[in-house]
Amino acid sequence: MSTTPQSTPGAAPAAxxxxxxxxxxxxxxxxxxISAKMQKTISVEMERMELHPKYKKYVxxxxxxxxxxxxxxxxxxxxxxxxxxxxxxxxxxWRLVEVVSRARQ
Length: 105
Known about the structure:
Blueprint: H1 17-21, E1 28-38, E2 41-51, E3 58-68, E4 79-84, E5 92-101
């Protein structure tokens, strides 16, 4: 008798991109596209609010990622979801999964 859960026919696929591809768990992040001027590469920024240890005031911190966009579907201002992947170049080791929401024009 097997203890692994069986998938039912017609069930919706898992929302996790790693589960769909049958790979081990990958980091999935969301951020805002700040530059889409390169070929097949977008620059995505994630912001977070962090409490300053001494002054007890919230400070805005951000980090930027280079993300591989094979089809060129993301534009400036879009909110995108991306996952970690093998190194594609020296600074690019993230891959675009989907455009969550489009920028307002």
